[in-house]
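Entry for the shared binder. Reason: the reviewer on the internal report wants the predicted structure included alongside the sequence.
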Amino acid sequence: MRSEKHKGYTLWGHAILQQKESSQRERYAASGTITLDNKVVEASGVLGEFGTEDEAELAGLRWARAWVDSFN
């Protein structure tokens, strides 16, 4: 999980390891959460699957930034 501050909100990018069969590469589902004063303002559903934890977390943060920017 990765976080950052943006326009007074705290944004969270999540990477959720997907179950895999032994022959498959690891995949991570991405999601994002937006909080303000330690309260959840909005949360995404699954934003897609990515090959690395880092890519998934960044996708969650991009979604959260775009959500905040669309309202501010």
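Summary line for the report: The CA atoms of residues 30 and 37 lie 23 Å apart.
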